[in-house]
Amino acid sequence: MGKVMNSEELHFFGLKVVYKDLVDQGYEVLNVRQEADVNPQILARKNDVLYFIVVRTACFPNMGILLPDVAARVGHHALKHKAVCRFASVGVANAQGTTDEEMGRPEVGGEYYINYKGLMPFPQ
Predict the structure, then answer these.
(1) DSSP conformation class of 107
(2) Contact between residue 76 and residue 51 where contact means Cβ atoms under 8 Å apart
(3) Collapsed DSSP state (helix, strand, coil) of residue 18
């Protein structure tokens, strides 16, 4: 067994997944903040629209969760900047795991299954 990702490594991995997806979809990524407690983590632009993107990453079988207080703070901040809020939920599983427990421990430099369905609107 290799080194299991800590929370910072897991969050950074999720950011990389979302960043690649944004670039692939033609977004201009303006800024990425690696700190999980800084919201939003990604500022991006597409078709002259500014996006505030909050990224949350969790280990299998879970998905990243947007907490209501974070959504409210980011939403309020976005209004001032005429930005659109989006949430990116990422789930990561250890592809070498043979049990749910092993799959729930992604390793640094390992192989992964990624559950990511793209950007989602903030809940109203």
Answers:
(1) B
(2) no
(3) helix
Q: What is the CATH number of domain 7-121?
A: 3.40.1350.10
Return the pLDDT at 36.
87
Q: Which residues of the chain have pLDDT under 50?
A: none
Could you tell me which residues come within 8 angstroms of residue 111 by beta carbon, excluding any fewer than 6 positions away? 94, 95, 96
- Asked whether the beta carbons of 122 and 88 are under 8 A apart, the reply is no
Per-domain residue ranges of the chain: 7-121
**For position 123, what pLDDT does the model report?**
77
Whether the Cβ atoms of residue 82 and residue 47 lie closer than 8 Å to each other: no
pTM: 0.94
Distance CA 121, CA 124 (A): 9
C-alpha span between 16 and 34 (Å, rounded)? 10
What's the DSSP call for residue 71? Answer: H
Cα–Cα distance between 22 and 93 in angstroms, integer?
A: 22
